Amino acid sequence: GAWDVTFSILLLLLNLGMQAAFSIIILDEDFMGIPFRKQEEFAKRWRTSMAHDYQYMDLAGRSLVSRVCAVDGALILSTTQATLVEQINSFLGLKVDEFEAVFFQPGSLLCMLCILLWSLCVYKEYRSIWLGLEVVWRIPRSKSTVFRDNTFHSICKGRLKLLLFTYLARAAIASLLLGAGIRWLAGTTSITDLMLNAVALNAILDVDEFLFAGFTPISIQLAVQNLEPVKMKYSRLRSQLESFGLLILLIGTLLGPYLLLLQPLAASMIAVKKELCGGNQTFVVGRNSDTQLNAGLVTKSSLDTSELTVSELAVERHKFSAGYEAPYLINFAPNPVIFDQFLSRDMATEVSNWGLCIETEIFQPTGPYYGDPLIMPMVELMLRNAAYSLGHADSDAVGCAGLKHLCSLPDARLLRMVCGNTCGCSDPYASVWHKVPTQGCLPACLQQGTDALAASACEDKVVTEEWDLLWDIYPTSLGAFYGSDMTASSIYPVMLNLVNFMKSAGCSGLTNQNMQRELGTRTLWCEGYPSLWRPLAGLCPVSCGCLGANPLPTYCSSSCAVNTAG
What we know:
two-stranded antiparallel ribbon; mainly alpha; elongated; 54% helix
């Protein structure tokens, strides 16, 4: 009927419109997204802006870039970059630390297979169009269309033009879809998305079949199905030429996209990964806006998971504990303000909050606060933190005495604060290095040493093992203070000369004008340096000019004033 024919024509136009719309959308730059080659610029910007920012280190002390390049699943920052690195590794078959293309590339192979599959679907459409054109062209022309016995005996020019337009439109749309589909597939960097995209493209090409099966009236479907087949004659020459042409088409389908699209994509992926992850990943940078200096810190590699940091151990120990259990390594703040203070205050501020000497007044049984239910758990937690920070995990068993060998380490600030007596803060004759508040010694412990000096004679001490140790660790202590290896400095030979001289001369060496000052800070040994060592006047009051001095210098013991008066 007329309505069936009209509706079928509308379905035909709908099919052409849908496929044309899909073609336009796929060809649109917004749909295709940013070309992958531009990711190199974004990667360079990310690497220089935030990848090495110290603020984005994790509790393990690993930089953001090392975690991204290791595809750390615990990331909450730069997940886009981590996903990109993972896609590149999967697509090119690379390991985390590989930056050169390998022979077997799973993504390239799968992409070629998907492109071939899509091309075959379009070539199938081309063949259908060609055969339809050939059949229509063989039908005789007449003023009117003659259709009987399920066969077209003639066709009018109007219908012929309509059919030719339909076939040409289908061919044009198929060509657009072929180019757009290959370009889309070749730009898909996710292996998991490749198959889905190939299936989606095939569905676009099958829109005509879906409309025919679902909406075309049954009478039209039966008429099409009952058409008598048209016999076609193929010569041997035509068959040979067709086979040769199809072979060239197949080779072109494989080589063209690979050489023009996939190889440049692989090269761009390698370049992007080098920008994201190439070179040194194990450092972070921060800038002090006041001093206008950039500070750097060497970090752990994300591949190094052998040891947990103290912060990670604290979390590991506490994450499943009940609310009533005392924390093992975490000093919980009662409110956010105190929490911020915990994080921001330095060691000098920390020790100023304590008006007592922890070891002698809390840990020792004779101390007034021994066993205090409030203070004791707090200082035990501090001792554990000190021990764990220095790689010693059994502080509860060994106590301060078992950690004595660690006291002289530059990083043992918290240990010196908790174990001031064992570490020599209260001993006026111990090594002077780090016996200052900024290096962990509590003022109350230092005062005990000052009181001991006041009760002793004002005289130089003889050379002992402690004296030799004081000078032996001089280069190491100074290097740790400045964050440099002093052996690489031009003053290192001069430093060794000073060490050897002072070890042999004893306190009297301080009277030598060439040896009176520390080489790095140019501070008098006798006066001390508040950031690193206490005055040597406690060991060598006579050589430092304390005996008989009037007025008495602040770094001298009051015993010298008493002796002078006597």
